[in-house]
Design goal:
heterodimer, A: 319 residues, alpha/beta, Rossmann fold, 2 domains, 5-stranded parallel β-sheet, 12 helices, 38% helix, globular, B: 190 residues, 3-stranded antiparallel β-sheet, 4 helices
Protein backbone atom coordinates (compact mmCIF):
# COMPACT_ATOMS: atom_id res chain seq x y z
CA UNK A 1 0.00 0.00 0.00
CA UNK A 2 1.27 3.41 -0.90
CA UNK A 3 1.44 5.71 2.06
CA UNK A 4 2.32 8.91 0.26
CA UNK A 5 -0.08 11.65 -0.67
CA UNK A 6 2.05 13.54 -3.16
CA UNK A 7 3.23 17.11 -2.91
CA UNK A 8 0.02 19.02 -2.31
CA UNK A 9 -3.47 18.76 -0.88
CA UNK A 10 -5.66 20.74 -3.23
CA UNK A 11 -9.00 19.01 -2.87
CA UNK A 12 -10.70 15.72 -2.14
CA UNK A 13 -11.99 15.23 -5.69
CA UNK A 14 -8.79 13.57 -6.89
CA UNK A 15 -7.93 11.58 -3.79
CA UNK A 16 -8.68 7.88 -3.62
CA UNK A 17 -10.70 6.23 -0.87
CA UNK A 18 -7.41 4.77 0.41
CA UNK A 19 -5.86 8.25 0.57
CA UNK A 20 -8.83 9.49 2.58
CA UNK A 21 -8.66 6.55 4.96
CA UNK A 22 -4.91 7.06 5.38
CA UNK A 23 -5.45 10.69 6.42
CA UNK A 24 -8.29 9.81 8.80
CA UNK A 25 -6.36 6.90 10.34
CA UNK A 26 -3.33 9.13 10.76
CA UNK A 27 -5.48 11.80 12.43
CA UNK A 28 -6.57 9.39 15.19
CA UNK A 29 -3.27 9.32 17.13
CA UNK A 30 -2.90 13.08 16.63
CA UNK A 31 -6.09 13.67 18.62
CA UNK A 32 -4.33 12.44 21.73
CA UNK A 33 -1.44 14.90 21.37
CA UNK A 34 -3.81 17.83 21.91
CA UNK A 35 -4.96 16.25 25.18
CA UNK A 36 -1.43 16.10 26.62
CA UNK A 37 -0.08 18.57 29.15
CA UNK A 38 2.74 19.32 26.71
CA UNK A 39 0.93 19.58 23.40
CA UNK A 40 3.93 19.27 21.15
CA UNK A 41 5.83 16.63 19.22
CA UNK A 42 9.06 17.34 17.36
CA UNK A 43 8.18 15.80 14.02
CA UNK A 44 8.19 19.01 11.93
CA UNK A 45 11.03 20.68 13.79
CA UNK A 46 12.89 23.02 11.47
CA UNK A 47 10.11 23.17 8.86
CA UNK A 48 8.86 26.62 7.95
CA UNK A 49 5.22 27.00 7.03
CA UNK A 50 3.55 30.14 5.69
CA UNK A 51 -0.16 30.62 6.24
CA UNK A 52 -1.22 32.78 3.33
CA UNK A 53 -4.77 33.93 3.92
CA UNK A 54 -6.26 36.23 1.29
CA UNK A 55 -9.72 35.93 2.83
CA UNK A 56 -10.80 36.41 6.41
CA UNK A 57 -10.72 33.31 8.57
CA UNK A 58 -10.61 32.68 12.28
CA UNK A 59 -11.24 29.01 12.79
CA UNK A 60 -9.30 27.57 9.87
CA UNK A 61 -6.28 29.81 10.25
CA UNK A 62 -6.00 29.28 13.99
CA UNK A 63 -6.62 25.56 13.58
CA UNK A 64 -3.80 25.30 11.03
CA UNK A 65 -1.56 27.37 13.24
CA UNK A 66 -2.21 25.13 16.25
CA UNK A 67 -1.62 22.05 14.11
CA UNK A 68 1.67 23.45 12.84
CA UNK A 69 2.86 24.55 16.27
CA UNK A 70 1.94 21.24 17.90
CA UNK A 71 4.16 19.55 15.32
CA UNK A 72 6.98 22.02 16.17
CA UNK A 73 7.02 23.78 12.79
CA UNK A 74 7.89 27.47 12.54
CA UNK A 75 4.97 29.45 11.21
CA UNK A 76 4.44 32.84 9.63
CA UNK A 77 1.03 34.32 8.94
CA UNK A 78 0.52 36.54 5.93
CA UNK A 79 -2.77 38.30 5.29
CA UNK A 80 -3.80 40.28 2.27
CA UNK A 81 -4.14 43.49 4.22
CA UNK A 82 -0.83 44.84 5.41
CA UNK A 83 1.17 42.85 2.85
CA UNK A 84 2.49 43.68 -0.61
CA UNK A 85 -0.66 42.19 -2.09
CA UNK A 86 -2.33 45.55 -1.60
CA UNK A 87 0.48 47.12 -3.61
CA UNK A 88 -0.48 44.98 -6.58
CA UNK A 89 1.90 42.07 -6.24
CA UNK A 90 0.66 38.93 -7.97
CA UNK A 91 0.03 35.69 -6.14
CA UNK A 92 2.95 33.95 -7.81
CA UNK A 93 5.34 36.79 -7.03
CA UNK A 94 4.28 36.76 -3.40
CA UNK A 95 4.80 33.02 -3.17
CA UNK A 96 8.13 33.06 -5.02
CA UNK A 97 9.42 35.73 -2.69
CA UNK A 98 8.40 33.60 0.24
CA UNK A 99 10.15 30.62 -1.31
CA UNK A 100 13.28 32.69 -1.75
CA UNK A 101 13.32 32.87 2.05
CA UNK A 102 13.45 29.03 2.08
CA UNK A 103 10.06 27.93 3.27
CA UNK A 104 8.75 24.37 3.14
CA UNK A 105 4.98 24.65 2.94
CA UNK A 106 2.25 27.11 2.08
CA UNK A 107 -1.25 26.90 3.51
CA UNK A 108 -3.42 29.16 1.39
CA UNK A 109 -6.92 30.51 1.44
CA UNK A 110 -7.93 32.49 -1.61
CA UNK A 111 -11.15 33.91 -3.03
CA UNK A 112 -10.59 32.44 -6.49
CA UNK A 113 -11.50 28.86 -7.32
CA UNK A 114 -8.39 27.04 -8.52
CA UNK A 115 -5.92 29.40 -6.85
CA UNK A 116 -4.32 26.60 -4.83
CA UNK A 117 -3.71 24.46 -7.92
CA UNK A 118 -2.36 27.46 -9.79
CA UNK A 119 0.12 28.09 -7.00
CA UNK A 120 1.05 24.44 -6.51
CA UNK A 121 2.07 24.16 -10.14
CA UNK A 122 4.41 27.11 -9.83
CA UNK A 123 6.27 26.62 -6.56
CA UNK A 124 8.26 23.75 -5.10
CA UNK A 125 6.88 24.00 -1.57
CA UNK A 126 3.99 21.80 -0.54
CA UNK A 127 0.68 23.62 -0.96
CA UNK A 128 -2.33 22.94 1.23
CA UNK A 129 -5.61 24.41 0.11
CA UNK A 130 -7.37 26.08 3.04
CA UNK A 131 -10.30 27.08 0.84
CA UNK A 132 -10.26 28.39 -2.71
CA UNK A 133 -13.30 30.36 -3.82
CA UNK A 134 -16.29 28.09 -4.34
CA UNK A 135 -14.12 25.14 -5.26
CA UNK A 136 -12.89 23.06 -2.32
CA UNK A 137 -11.97 23.21 1.36
CA UNK A 138 -10.38 19.79 1.74
CA UNK A 139 -9.35 19.90 5.40
CA UNK A 140 -12.90 20.90 6.35
CA UNK A 141 -14.21 17.96 4.34
CA UNK A 142 -11.74 15.69 6.12
CA UNK A 143 -12.61 16.91 9.60
CA UNK A 144 -16.29 16.41 8.79
CA UNK A 145 -15.51 12.84 7.70
CA UNK A 146 -13.53 12.26 10.89
CA UNK A 147 -16.38 13.61 13.03
CA UNK A 148 -18.94 11.38 11.33
CA UNK A 149 -16.60 8.40 11.71
CA UNK A 150 -16.36 9.09 15.45
CA UNK A 151 -20.07 8.27 15.65
CA UNK A 152 -20.73 5.69 12.96
CA UNK A 153 -19.12 4.02 9.94
CA UNK A 154 -19.17 6.40 7.00
CA UNK A 155 -20.17 3.76 4.45
CA UNK A 156 -23.94 3.62 4.28
CA UNK A 157 -24.49 6.72 6.39
CA UNK A 158 -27.02 9.17 4.98
CA UNK A 159 -25.65 12.70 5.02
CA UNK A 160 -27.69 15.70 3.92
CA UNK A 161 -26.00 19.01 3.28
CA UNK A 162 -28.51 21.75 3.99
CA UNK A 163 -28.49 25.29 2.69
CA UNK A 164 -26.23 27.34 0.51
CA UNK A 165 -24.61 24.56 -1.50
CA UNK A 166 -24.02 26.85 -4.49
CA UNK A 167 -21.45 29.06 -2.80
CA UNK A 168 -19.99 26.36 -0.60
CA UNK A 169 -16.54 24.86 -1.05
CA UNK A 170 -17.28 22.92 2.14
CA UNK A 171 -20.21 21.23 0.41
CA UNK A 172 -18.07 20.26 -2.57
CA UNK A 173 -15.28 18.75 -0.47
CA UNK A 174 -17.87 16.95 1.64
CA UNK A 175 -19.67 15.49 -1.36
CA UNK A 176 -16.44 14.14 -2.90
CA UNK A 177 -15.18 12.69 0.34
CA UNK A 178 -18.47 11.16 1.43
CA UNK A 179 -19.20 9.55 -1.94
CA UNK A 180 -15.72 8.03 -2.13
CA UNK A 181 -16.13 6.49 1.31
CA UNK A 182 -19.52 5.04 0.46
CA UNK A 183 -21.93 7.40 2.19
CA UNK A 184 -25.29 8.33 0.71
CA UNK A 185 -25.34 12.05 0.07
CA UNK A 186 -28.22 14.49 -0.35
CA UNK A 187 -28.52 18.23 -0.55
CA UNK A 188 -31.40 20.42 0.50
CA UNK A 189 -31.95 24.10 -0.06
CA UNK A 190 -33.74 26.67 -2.14
CA UNK A 191 -33.35 26.00 -5.84
CA UNK A 192 -31.45 29.25 -6.25
CA UNK A 193 -28.75 27.97 -3.89
CA UNK A 194 -28.28 24.53 -5.42
CA UNK A 195 -25.84 24.18 -8.34
CA UNK A 196 -27.40 23.16 -11.65
CA UNK A 197 -26.97 19.47 -12.39
CA UNK A 198 -25.95 18.50 -8.87
CA UNK A 199 -28.02 15.35 -9.18
CA UNK A 200 -25.57 14.06 -11.78
CA UNK A 201 -22.94 13.65 -9.04
CA UNK A 202 -25.06 10.91 -7.53
CA UNK A 203 -26.58 13.19 -4.94
CA UNK A 204 -30.26 13.17 -3.92
CA UNK A 205 -32.00 16.55 -3.90
CA UNK A 206 -34.60 17.43 -1.28
CA UNK A 207 -36.74 20.50 -1.73
CA UNK A 208 -38.12 20.49 1.80
CA UNK A 209 -35.95 20.43 4.89
CA UNK A 210 -38.56 18.25 6.67
CA UNK A 211 -37.95 15.51 4.10
CA UNK A 212 -34.19 15.83 4.55
CA UNK A 213 -34.52 15.51 8.33
CA UNK A 214 -36.70 12.43 7.94
CA UNK A 215 -34.17 10.80 5.59
CA UNK A 216 -30.78 11.69 7.06
CA UNK A 217 -28.49 10.31 9.77
CA UNK A 218 -26.34 13.42 9.61
CA UNK A 219 -27.25 17.00 8.74
CA UNK A 220 -24.41 19.24 7.72
CA UNK A 221 -25.92 22.71 7.96
CA UNK A 222 -24.15 25.32 5.86
CA UNK A 223 -23.81 28.97 6.56
CA UNK A 224 -25.80 31.30 4.34
CA UNK A 225 -22.87 33.07 2.69
CA UNK A 226 -24.35 36.51 2.45
CA UNK A 227 -20.98 38.02 1.54
CA UNK A 228 -20.76 35.93 -1.63
CA UNK A 229 -24.28 36.72 -2.77
CA UNK A 230 -25.57 39.51 -4.83
CA UNK A 231 -29.19 40.24 -3.99
CA UNK A 232 -31.84 37.82 -5.14
CA UNK A 233 -30.83 34.36 -3.97
CA UNK A 234 -33.18 34.38 -0.99
CA UNK A 235 -36.01 36.82 -0.30
CA UNK A 236 -34.83 37.46 3.28
CA UNK A 237 -32.93 35.69 6.03
CA UNK A 238 -36.14 35.53 8.07
CA UNK A 239 -37.96 33.79 5.28
CA UNK A 240 -35.02 31.45 4.77
CA UNK A 241 -35.15 30.49 8.44
CA UNK A 242 -38.89 29.93 8.28
CA UNK A 243 -38.59 27.55 5.29
CA UNK A 244 -35.12 25.97 5.60
CA UNK A 245 -33.97 26.69 9.14
CA UNK A 246 -32.94 23.61 11.13
CA UNK A 247 -35.15 24.20 14.14
CA UNK A 248 -35.83 22.19 17.28
CA UNK A 249 -39.48 21.76 16.26
CA UNK A 250 -38.48 20.20 12.96
CA UNK A 251 -35.98 17.87 14.58
CA UNK A 252 -38.46 16.79 17.24
CA UNK A 253 -40.86 15.62 14.58
CA UNK A 254 -38.24 13.24 13.22
CA UNK A 255 -37.99 9.72 14.55
CA UNK A 256 -34.27 9.37 13.77
CA UNK A 257 -31.25 10.04 15.97
CA UNK A 258 -29.60 12.82 14.03
CA UNK A 259 -26.12 14.25 14.23
CA UNK A 260 -25.99 17.97 13.51
CA UNK A 261 -22.84 19.47 12.01
CA UNK A 262 -22.01 23.01 10.97
CA UNK A 263 -18.69 24.20 9.53
CA UNK A 264 -18.98 27.59 11.23
CA UNK A 265 -19.24 30.45 11.63
CA UNK A 266 -22.91 30.00 12.47
CA UNK A 267 -25.65 32.46 11.71
CA UNK A 268 -27.90 31.60 14.64
CA UNK A 269 -31.51 32.12 13.71
CA UNK A 270 -30.76 32.05 9.99
CA UNK A 271 -29.75 28.53 9.00
CA UNK A 272 -29.74 26.98 12.46
CA UNK A 273 -31.78 27.34 15.65
CA UNK A 274 -29.71 28.20 18.73
CA UNK A 275 -31.42 25.41 20.64
CA UNK A 276 -30.20 22.96 17.99
CA UNK A 277 -26.69 24.40 17.81
CA UNK A 278 -26.31 24.07 21.58
CA UNK A 279 -28.37 20.90 21.84
CA UNK A 280 -27.43 17.28 22.43
CA UNK A 281 -27.34 16.33 18.74
CA UNK A 282 -24.81 18.99 17.76
CA UNK A 283 -21.20 17.90 17.24
CA UNK A 284 -20.11 21.32 16.05
CA UNK A 285 -17.38 21.78 18.65
CA UNK A 286 -16.17 18.21 18.09
CA UNK A 287 -15.65 19.23 14.48
CA UNK A 288 -13.43 22.07 15.64
CA UNK A 289 -11.40 19.74 17.87
CA UNK A 290 -11.05 17.22 15.05
CA UNK A 291 -9.95 19.99 12.71
CA UNK A 292 -6.64 20.36 14.51
CA UNK A 293 -5.98 16.60 14.42
CA UNK A 294 -6.84 16.25 10.74
CA UNK A 295 -4.62 19.20 9.82
CA UNK A 296 -1.77 17.72 11.85
CA UNK A 297 -2.22 14.50 9.89
CA UNK A 298 -2.14 16.30 6.54
CA UNK A 299 0.95 18.33 7.48
CA UNK A 300 2.68 15.19 8.72
CA UNK A 301 1.85 13.20 5.61
CA UNK A 302 2.91 15.91 3.17
CA UNK A 303 6.07 17.08 4.90
CA UNK A 304 9.48 15.67 4.19
CA UNK A 305 10.18 12.04 3.52
CA UNK A 306 12.47 11.75 0.54
CA UNK A 307 11.83 8.37 -1.11
CA UNK A 308 15.25 8.30 -2.78
CA UNK A 309 16.88 8.44 0.65
CA UNK A 310 14.55 5.76 1.96
CA UNK A 311 16.12 3.04 -0.18
CA UNK A 312 19.56 3.58 1.29
CA UNK A 313 18.19 3.81 4.82
CA UNK A 314 16.35 0.51 4.47
CA UNK A 315 19.48 -1.52 5.23
CA UNK A 316 19.28 -0.49 8.85
CA UNK A 317 15.77 -0.58 10.29
CA UNK A 318 15.54 1.47 13.44
CA UNK A 319 15.50 -0.39 16.71
CA UNK B 1 14.37 -14.13 -3.76
CA UNK B 2 17.91 -14.70 -2.45
CA UNK B 3 18.30 -17.71 -0.19
CA UNK B 4 18.02 -16.74 3.46
CA UNK B 5 18.72 -18.74 6.52
CA UNK B 6 16.04 -18.63 9.19
CA UNK B 7 17.32 -19.57 12.58
CA UNK B 8 15.21 -20.17 15.67
CA UNK B 9 16.67 -18.42 18.70
CA UNK B 10 13.84 -18.87 21.22
CA UNK B 11 10.80 -21.11 20.88
CA UNK B 12 7.52 -20.47 22.68
CA UNK B 13 8.62 -22.15 25.90
CA UNK B 14 11.92 -20.29 25.92
CA UNK B 15 10.15 -16.97 25.32
CA UNK B 16 7.91 -17.68 28.30
CA UNK B 17 10.84 -18.61 30.58
CA UNK B 18 12.84 -15.62 29.40
CA UNK B 19 9.98 -13.25 30.17
CA UNK B 20 9.62 -14.78 33.63
CA UNK B 21 13.28 -14.18 34.33
CA UNK B 22 13.05 -10.63 32.98
CA UNK B 23 10.11 -9.95 35.28
CA UNK B 24 12.17 -11.13 38.25
CA UNK B 25 15.06 -8.91 37.16
CA UNK B 26 12.72 -5.95 36.93
CA UNK B 27 11.41 -6.59 40.46
CA UNK B 28 14.96 -7.00 41.76
CA UNK B 29 16.02 -3.68 40.24
CA UNK B 30 13.01 -1.75 41.50
CA UNK B 31 13.31 -0.67 45.15
CA UNK B 32 9.61 0.09 45.51
CA UNK B 33 7.40 -2.00 43.18
CA UNK B 34 4.41 0.20 43.98
CA UNK B 35 6.04 2.91 41.87
CA UNK B 36 6.41 0.68 38.81
CA UNK B 37 4.98 1.52 35.42
CA UNK B 38 5.81 -0.55 32.33
CA UNK B 39 5.74 1.26 29.01
CA UNK B 40 5.74 -0.81 25.84
CA UNK B 41 7.07 0.59 22.59
CA UNK B 42 4.70 0.02 19.66
CA UNK B 43 4.11 -2.52 18.42
CA UNK B 44 5.46 -5.71 19.97
CA UNK B 45 6.87 -3.96 23.01
CA UNK B 46 3.27 -3.30 24.05
CA UNK B 47 2.43 -7.01 24.17
CA UNK B 48 5.68 -7.84 25.95
CA UNK B 49 5.03 -5.10 28.54
CA UNK B 50 1.59 -6.56 29.17
CA UNK B 51 3.03 -10.00 29.89
CA UNK B 52 5.87 -8.66 32.01
CA UNK B 53 3.39 -6.55 33.98
CA UNK B 54 1.27 -9.62 34.74
CA UNK B 55 4.33 -11.55 35.95
CA UNK B 56 5.66 -8.63 37.96
CA UNK B 57 2.24 -8.08 39.53
CA UNK B 58 2.07 -11.74 40.56
CA UNK B 59 5.61 -11.75 41.95
CA UNK B 60 5.48 -8.45 43.83
CA UNK B 61 1.77 -8.49 44.77
CA UNK B 62 1.13 -5.01 43.36
CA UNK B 63 -0.89 -3.56 40.51
CA UNK B 64 1.45 -2.64 37.69
CA UNK B 65 0.12 0.08 35.40
CA UNK B 66 1.05 -0.19 31.74
CA UNK B 67 1.41 2.35 29.01
CA UNK B 68 2.20 2.33 25.33
CA UNK B 69 4.38 4.63 23.32
CA UNK B 70 4.56 5.24 19.60
CA UNK B 71 7.85 6.96 18.96
CA UNK B 72 7.27 7.73 15.25
CA UNK B 73 6.89 11.47 15.80
CA UNK B 74 10.14 11.54 17.80
CA UNK B 75 12.29 9.68 15.27
CA UNK B 76 15.38 11.35 13.89
CA UNK B 77 15.15 9.72 10.48
CA UNK B 78 11.71 10.79 9.22
CA UNK B 79 13.45 12.73 6.46
CA UNK B 80 14.70 9.46 5.03
CA UNK B 81 11.91 6.99 5.72
CA UNK B 82 9.99 7.99 2.61
CA UNK B 83 6.29 7.22 2.79
CA UNK B 84 5.04 7.94 6.24
CA UNK B 85 4.54 5.06 8.65
CA UNK B 86 1.15 4.77 10.30
CA UNK B 87 1.24 5.94 13.88
CA UNK B 88 -0.03 3.77 16.68
CA UNK B 89 -1.62 4.99 19.89
CA UNK B 90 0.35 6.49 22.74
CA UNK B 91 -1.32 6.15 26.11
CA UNK B 92 0.12 6.64 29.54
CA UNK B 93 -2.52 5.82 32.16
CA UNK B 94 -0.69 7.30 35.15
CA UNK B 95 1.32 10.43 35.80
CA UNK B 96 5.00 9.56 35.43
CA UNK B 97 6.34 11.99 38.01
CA UNK B 98 8.23 10.14 40.71
CA UNK B 99 7.55 6.72 39.15
CA UNK B 100 10.01 4.02 38.29
CA UNK B 101 9.28 3.67 34.61
CA UNK B 102 10.50 0.80 32.46
CA UNK B 103 10.67 1.08 28.69
CA UNK B 104 9.93 -2.34 27.19
CA UNK B 105 10.84 -3.17 23.60
CA UNK B 106 11.29 -6.34 21.60
CA UNK B 107 14.69 -5.74 20.02
CA UNK B 108 17.50 -3.36 20.95
CA UNK B 109 19.62 -2.52 17.93
CA UNK B 110 20.87 0.97 17.07
CA UNK B 111 19.43 2.53 20.24
CA UNK B 112 17.63 5.23 18.28
CA UNK B 113 14.18 4.03 19.24
CA UNK B 114 15.15 4.20 22.90
CA UNK B 115 16.58 7.68 22.40
CA UNK B 116 13.24 8.73 20.88
CA UNK B 117 11.30 7.05 23.67
CA UNK B 118 13.35 8.89 26.31
CA UNK B 119 12.64 12.20 24.58
CA UNK B 120 8.96 11.40 24.41
CA UNK B 121 8.71 10.34 28.06
CA UNK B 122 10.30 13.63 29.08
CA UNK B 123 7.34 15.39 27.48
CA UNK B 124 4.98 13.45 29.73
CA UNK B 125 6.64 13.99 33.06
CA UNK B 126 9.70 13.33 35.18
CA UNK B 127 9.98 9.73 36.35
CA UNK B 128 12.30 9.16 39.31
CA UNK B 129 14.07 6.53 37.23
CA UNK B 130 13.75 5.05 33.77
CA UNK B 131 14.91 1.51 33.07
CA UNK B 132 15.16 -0.37 29.78
CA UNK B 133 14.07 -3.99 29.32
CA UNK B 134 14.42 -5.74 25.95
CA UNK B 135 13.69 -9.29 24.90
CA UNK B 136 16.58 -9.37 22.42
CA UNK B 137 19.81 -7.37 22.34
CA UNK B 138 21.28 -7.82 18.87
CA UNK B 139 24.22 -5.41 19.27
CA UNK B 140 24.98 -2.80 16.60
CA UNK B 141 24.48 0.26 18.79
CA UNK B 142 24.80 3.71 17.21
CA UNK B 143 24.19 5.57 20.47
CA UNK B 144 25.53 5.14 24.01
CA UNK B 145 22.46 3.26 25.23
CA UNK B 146 22.36 -0.08 27.06
CA UNK B 147 19.56 -2.16 28.52
CA UNK B 148 19.17 -2.90 32.23
CA UNK B 149 17.31 -6.15 31.66
CA UNK B 150 18.04 -8.33 28.63
CA UNK B 151 16.19 -11.50 27.69
CA UNK B 152 18.62 -12.89 25.15
CA UNK B 153 21.76 -11.61 23.47
CA UNK B 154 22.07 -12.47 19.79
CA UNK B 155 25.10 -11.83 17.63
CA UNK B 156 24.04 -10.45 14.27
CA UNK B 157 25.45 -8.89 11.15
CA UNK B 158 24.03 -5.52 10.06
CA UNK B 159 21.92 -7.02 7.25
CA UNK B 160 20.34 -9.71 9.43
CA UNK B 161 16.79 -9.36 10.61
CA UNK B 162 15.55 -10.32 14.05
CA UNK B 163 11.87 -11.26 14.16
CA UNK B 164 10.09 -11.29 17.48
CA UNK B 165 6.75 -13.02 17.14
CA UNK B 166 4.08 -12.73 19.83
CA UNK B 167 0.95 -14.83 19.96
CA UNK B 168 -1.33 -11.78 20.32
CA UNK B 169 -0.28 -10.46 16.90
CA UNK B 170 1.47 -13.32 15.14
CA UNK B 171 -0.29 -16.39 16.47
CA UNK B 172 2.79 -17.83 18.17
CA UNK B 173 5.70 -16.85 20.40
CA UNK B 174 9.19 -17.08 18.93
CA UNK B 175 12.39 -15.21 18.28
CA UNK B 176 13.96 -15.89 14.91
CA UNK B 177 16.93 -14.49 13.06
CA UNK B 178 16.96 -14.19 9.31
CA UNK B 179 20.57 -14.29 8.24
CA UNK B 180 21.14 -12.20 5.16
CA UNK B 181 22.50 -14.28 2.29
CA UNK B 182 26.18 -13.39 1.83
CA UNK B 183 25.80 -12.24 -1.80
CA UNK B 184 22.18 -11.09 -1.90
CA UNK B 185 20.54 -8.22 -0.12
CA UNK B 186 18.66 -8.79 3.11
CA UNK B 187 15.04 -7.89 3.30
CA UNK B 188 14.74 -5.81 6.44
CA UNK B 189 11.56 -5.23 8.37
CA UNK B 190 9.79 -2.10 7.15
Amino acid sequence: MSRALGKDLLGLEHLSADDLRLILDTAEPFKEISERAIKKVPVLRGKTIVNLFFEPSTRTRISFEFAEKRLSADTVNVGSTGSSVVKGETLVDTARNLEAMRIDMVVMRHGSSGAAKFLAERIESNVINAGDGKHEHPTQGLLDLLTIRDHRPIAGTKVCIVGDVLHSRVARSNIWGLLKLGAEVAVCGPQTLLPLGIGELGVTVFRRVEEAIEWADVLNVLRLQLERMQAGYVPSTREYYRVFGVTLERLERSTRELIIMHPGPMNRGVEIDSRVADGPHAVILDQVTNGVAVRMAVLYLLAGGKPELAESAKGAPER
Amino acid sequence: MPPEERQLVLDAGAVERTLQRMAQDIVRQTPDPRLLVLIGVQRRGVELAARLAASVAAAAHVDVPRGSLDITLYRDDLEVVGPRPLIGPTSLPVALDGRHAWIVDDVLFSGRTVRAALDQLADFGRPARIGLAVLVDRGGRELPIQADVIGEKVTTAPGDRVDVLVRELDGRDAVEVLRAAPAGKGKPKP
